[in-house]
Design goal:
heterotrimer; A alpha/beta (131); B alpha/beta (479); C alpha/beta (564); A: 131 residues; alpha/beta; Barwin-like endoglucanases; six-stranded mixed β-sheet; 6 strands; 28% helix; B: 479 residues; Rossmann fold; Dimethylsulfoxide Reductase, domain 2; nine-stranded mixed β-sheet
């Protein structure tokens, strides 16, 4: 199976901002932050279609999200996941003495995961925190 | 129907104060002037809501009386040796003041969301200083506007319109018209591109993003906007010029610009892929402006180098003041994250990561900051107010938070409140209760009350006062 | 209802002409009264001690955006000096820019009970008041910065004094302010584009008005509004060699606006604008010229702005001056320009004894206080924290009261500065009576605070008792003893309650906030005019600008009958 090594960015999007104000349990919110924006060329390299599920892995965790075409291409080798519980699974907690974890430019691996599903918020929390 | 005007918007750091809200039977039915995020909050804030206090019993959260919840919260905090009190940037200064008193009383660590946001910016300001202003100064005077590692179109949607490029000022006119013509250009280019692709039946590679020759609009004697980012954001599209920087290469680029401003030689041809000639032209424009402003976002503070990136940005702007007037401002995210730094600082001397375990304020980010404390597994309880660390902290840190007794005060249901041991739902400040908050440029404004809170929900301030009172009572009885 | 009898102290109450007389003071219900019954009262034995009205500080930066930016900028300042929480007091940090609680406690420990915060950006008034609310132990007030406000510049340019007065009155009420503060008039507007004005007669870019016109205009406005204090002026060219001429021009320009011997202008931290010489190398004291003028003209009051040899944090609304200070020192620099109103700057600074310039500044401050003959017209300040932190006031007291103390410091300073210093030629030593004048009575009078600065019947029962016996201690020789006594009051009484005992806080009280509420006839016109122009000038809505009275911890408005 094809695998890509990418640089993972996280950040705000207007949909995440809107979704968060509609409530963290709302579908809008969950849909807005369980995605991974990719360069269309990179999606092709993974040999999957747009909106297919992919698995993103860093040294700190691994999570299934939906691959969506970035409107900001080209940026091959760079993927973007909006702030939220999905991005946090992948985040590097090291602060290098600053108090601030590293949330942008982390090295990640990305691979197709067509048979796996994107967890709902509740399911994700249960897996992460066993509560 | 009653219309409440001049309402401040309790969402982002732009903290717009011109919102008009129509209320019918104590329900908000219409929102005017707000952006998509603001409107979403005012119209939907009540849709996923828990209004009764909860305590975890046998693994399940069950409804309890406020008294019981407050009692339990106080017991947790009073018996803890090193509790964390975290959040604060989405509540009022009045609540934060009580929070600080509570943190001092229980000898805990109080930290706010700037620790995972603009914390590095603050560390850097403490080393270098900052040449800044209120936003109106830019509206009236700025003719060169940089957004660096920040995407106001998405994160602060009205920022450009109210305060910078598109705002009408005394000495500077709005650049709205220029944008309109540029927009038409962009659209027709896209159309052309698509037509060519259709006609030839193939995809042509898109052109590189950073144009090496600067557009003529940058050289004209009028207001202009430059966006520097790792990807072409919505904000970049409306800018006069987009400078694409490779991920984690901001520091090099900033230092290169700084050397050019100081008339020092760069003995390379390119910096992070951008020819030095292009940088020289940009520096010319920076030096030649009447008043320049550099807004920076988390693109700088969160990427490699962290506060060193901000060091470079602050120093660049400081150096530019030898040649012209230049200012710089962090794009703060939450509506009161600036206020939380302000209140922390006047009461303790420090803006975040304040440790009261010795009986006096101590500050050492990296040691007394909440992510580090969690990762080291040192805290034995936590109070989270108006924030969602379970969703936004790196999972490793969030797990430590959830392992220990966790009290949450929040009007919203969040991943953090779902994981908590005690949940005290509060009223929405800025919608259901009043208060004070600080815009990103340190301008304090009133948070308004437009509708009544549910009868079971007190303000964050009142809940905290109750917990503080109960903690003091427990301690008195204990001694 | 607390009643107190302060027995047998040596009372210094200059406003009532009492000079060290041994007498009893009675308080009841927060006021000084004629007598209370001993049975119901708490008795303080003040024998062998000095009793004075509580200290009044006419100019100390203790609250608001600028001060807090200074706190944020200087964690290294706080690390060295902390206050631990006690059952009565909140914790905090100290040194040059103490946290709010610590500021209140430390002033009270020195016997100070009324503080004037001299620089408030009107747009950020809420911030200043929030901090004042968290500054315990003292009564307080704050001055809005109005010398570069676009409305003022425009109305004065168009010679519309009455309209200007009405708008200033609106601003005073909106910001809950106490006095008209003017900082480098015109210079701060110019600083918006990185420029400055050269002197009193330079035109302010884009506004076609001169600093002189601004000062004169606001001086007239001040009279029209019948404000309790005069205009409070930080001169143009502050901190520049040769600026004593600017200071003199500033005083002269309002000379003909004075009447009935009453002061019409206060020149603040005068040391910083009493520099003679053409550059730093030829710097000399201009104290002689300035004091000569002040001695011959009754329309001016001054405060010292004394420099202390220590590490401190400079902060003023004078953006261009702070930028120069940054360039001189190379230290970290904060700038904060405020739309349509003002600016601010902050630079940490260390005054060194061995520096020619700093030592000369130290000398100038003392020369001013000693050469100005009338203690009612010069007040003890450091422009806290600009010249040094307020906690060093007792040092200044000892220098003013003792030639020996001055000589001792003179020996330690830069040689050339010592050679130039006028101090060796000055024999004057302040008496306790004069000291009470420049630290409380004179300041209260200049501020028009009728309840403060004295111990006459009906005065606020704000009283400081210092453990020093003026009959036994020769202040001139035992200056260290004087310093220690003023550092830690034996008792501080605030509003009739004992709040400090032997230098320790024994009760925490919150204190009032004074603000001036001018009664003008044209309020409605002003409001509609302001409303109309508001969106053009600021980035906030008209309705969100004024600070409501409920915002103040304990509001105490002073209504004044305006002539407009």
């Amino acid at each position: 199976m094809p695998k890509l090594k990418v640089s993972l960015l996280t950040g705000r999007t207007i949909n995440q901002g809107k979704g968060k104000e509609q409530g963290k349990l709302s579908e809008e919110y969950q849909n807005s932050v369980s995605i991974c924006q990719m360069d269309p060329e990179d999606i092709k390299l993974l040999k999957v279609r747009e909106n297919a599920n992919v698995k993103v892995t860093t040294d700190f965790g691994s999570v299934i999200v939906k691959a969506v075409k970035s409107k900001r291409a080209p940026h091959s080798g760079v993927v973007f996941i909006p702030y939220g519980p999905w991005a946090s699974v992948l985040a590097n907690p090291k602060t290098h003495g600053t108090g601030m974890p590293s949330l942008k430019g982390e090295i990640a691996e990305i691979e197709p995961a067509i048979t796996e599903k994107v967890l709902s918020l509740q399911e994700l929390l249960r897996t992460c925190f066993r509560r | 129907m009653p219309v409440v005007s001049n309402v401040t918007c309790p969402v982002c750091g732009s903290f717009c104060d011109d919102i008009e809200i129509t209320v019918k039977n104590d329900v908000i039915v219409k929102v005017k002037n707000a952006c998509a995020m603001g409107e979403a909050k005012f119209l939907n804030y009540a849709s996923h809501r828990q209004t009764k206090p909860l305590i975890r019993k046998n693994g399940e959260l069950v409804e309890v009386s406020l008294k019981e919840a407050v009692q339990k919260a106080a017991e947790i905090l009073a018996s803890a040796k090193y509790p964390i009190l975290y959040g604060w940037s989405n509540t009022s200064c009045e609540a934060i003041r009580v929070g600080l008193e509570l943190a001092e009383e229980v000898g805990g660590v109080i930290d706010n969301t700037s620790t995972v946001c603009h914390g590095p910016s603050i560390l850097s300001i403490q080393d270098i200083g900052i040449s800044s202003c209120t936003l109106g100064q830019l509206r009236h005077r700025a003719d060169l506007i940089f957004y660096w590692g920040s995407n106001p179109w998405s994160a602060h949607p009205r920022h450009i319109d109210r305060y910078t490029t598109f705002a009408e000022g005394r000495f500077q006119k709005s650049a709205w018209r220029g944008y309109l013509s540029r927009l038409t250009g962009i659209l027709s280019k896209k159309r052309l591109h698509r037509a060519v692709n259709l006609g030839l039946g193939r995809q042509t590679p898109s052109p590189p993003e950073t144009e090496l020759r600067l557009p003529s609009t940058l050289l004209q004697n009028k207001r202009k906007m430059i966006v520097v980012d790792v990807r072409k954001t919505r904000s970049a599209e409306i800018a006069d010029y987009f400078l694409q920087v490779k991920p984690n290469k901001d520091y090099e680029l900033l230092q290169a610009l700084r050397m050019l401003v100081r008339d020092e030689e760069l003995d390379v041809d390119k910096v992070t892929g951008i020819p030095v000639e292009t940088l020289e032209e940009i520096v010319e424009i920076m030096i030649g402006c009447e008043l320049g402003i550099l807004f920076f976002g988390l693109g700088l503070t969160m990427s490699q180098g962290k506060h060193r990136n901000i060091d470079a940005a602050l120093s660049l702007v400081r150096d530019l003041n030898r040649r012209t007037k230049f200012l710089i401002m962090p794009m703060r995210g939450h509506f009161n994250v600036t206020g939380v730094n302000v209140v922390f600082t006047w009461q303790t001397g420090y803006p975040y990561a304040v440790d009261f375990s010795h009986g006096y304020p101590r500050y050492n980010p990296g040691e007394t900051s909440v992510v580090d404390i969690l990762c080291r597994g040192e805290s034995d309880a936590a109070l989270v107010v108006a924030s969602d660390p379970v969703a936004h902290f790196p999972n490793v840190a969030a797990q430590k938070l959830v392992e220990k007794p966790l009290v949450v005060i929040d009007p919203q249901v969040t991943p953090t409140s779902i994981m908590a041991d005690v949940v005290i739902p509060s009223a929405f400040v800025g919608i259901e209760v009043e208060g004070t908050a600080y815009r990103m440029d340190h301008v304090p404004l009133p948070l308004k009350k437009v509708v009544e809170p549910p009868t079971t929900c007190l303000s964050d301030k009142e809940v905290l006062q109750k917990i503080l009172g109960e903690v003091r009572r427990l301690r008195r009885n204990h001694n | 209802m607390t009643q107190l009898i302060i027995k047998n102290g040596f009372v210094y109450d200059p406003l009532n002409g009492i000079d060290g007389e041994k007498m009893d003071i009675f308080t009841s219900n927060g006021r000084v009264v004629e007598k209370v019954a001993e049975k119901q009262a708490k008795v303080i034995d003040a024998s062998g001690m000095i009793v004075m009205p509580g200290g009044v500080d006419i100019h100390c930066h203790i609250a608001g955006g600028e001060v807090n930016a200074g706190r944020l900028l200087r964690p290294e300042d706080h690390f060295r000096d902390v206050e631990t929480k006690t059952p009565l007091t909140r914790s905090g940090v100290g040194r040059s820019i103490p946290s709010t609680f610590t500021t209140g406690y430390r002033y009270a420990r020195m016997g100070y009970t009324t503080l004037m915060n001299p620089a408030m950006a009107a747009l950020e008034a809420r911030h200043t008041h929030e901090e004042l609310n968290d500054t315990p132990m003292v009564d307080k007030a704050t001055y809005p910065l109005l010398g570069d406000w676009w409305f003022v510049l425009e109305y004065l340019r168009d010679d519309m004094i009455e309209e200007c007065a009405a708008h200033v009155s609106w601003m005073m009420t909106a910001t809950k302010g106490y006095a008209i503060k003017i900082v480098n008039p015109g210079g701060l507007e110019a600083w918006g584009f990185g420029n400055n004005v050269r002197d009193l007669y330079d035109s302010v870019p884009h506004f076609n008005i001169t600093p002189e016109e601004i000062i004169r205009g606001l001086c007239k406005v001040n009279k029209l509004l019948n404000m309790p204090h005069t205009i409070h002026v930080h001169t143009n060219n502050l901190g520049k060699p040769g600026n004593y001429l600017t200071a003199l021009d500033t005083m002269k320009c309002v000379e003909n606006l004075a009447s009935e011997e009453r002061p019409v202008i206060h020149i603040t931290h005068c040391q910083f604008c009493a520099f003679k010489g053409s550059d730093w190398n030829t710097l000399k004291s201009g104290a002689e010229e300035i004091s000569k003028y002040v001695n011959n003209h009754s329309h001016v009051t001054l405060d010292m702005g004394q420099v202390i040899f220590t590490d401190t944090t400079t902060m003023t609304a004078d953006g261009p001056f702070q930028y120069i200070l940054y360039q001189l020192s190379g230290n970290k620099w904060v700038n904060h320009d405020v739309e349509t109103e003002t600016s601010a700057g902050i630079v940490p600074f260390r005054y060194k004894r061995k520096s020619f310039v700093h030592a000369t500044q130290w000398s100038i401050g003392l020369e001013l206080a000693l050469l100005v003959q009338d203690p009612w017209r010069i007040y003890l300040t450091t422009d806290h924290p600009n010249g040094g932190p307020f906690t060093s006031y007792p040092k200044i007291i000892s220098w003013l009261m003792s030639q020996v103390a001055r000589e001792k410091m003179l020996k330690k300073i830069n040689k050339r500065a010592r050679k130039n210093s006028l101090l060796p030629s000055i024999e004057r030593e302040y008496s306790f009576y004069e000291m009470a004048t420049i630290t409380r009575a004179g300041q209260a009078r200049a501020l028009g605070l009728e309840q403060k600065g004295h111990l006459g019947l009906g005065a606020d029962a704000d009283i400081a008792i210092y453990n020093i016996n003026p009959e036994l201690v020769d202040a001139s020789k035992k200056y260290k003893r004087v310093r220690d006594a003023f550092q830690e009051a034996a008792f501080t009484i605030k509003g009739g309650e004992i709040v400090v005992r032997d230098g320790q806080v024994v009760k925490s009280v919150s204190g009032k906030t004074f603000w001036v509420n001018p009664q003008v006839s044209s309020t409605a016109d002003i409001t509609s005019n302001m409303k109309r122009k508001f969106r053009e000038y600021w980035t906030v809505e008209f309705e969100n600008y004024p600070v409501p009275e409920s915002y103040l911890g304990t509001s105490c408005s002073i209504p004044v009958e305006a002539k407009v």
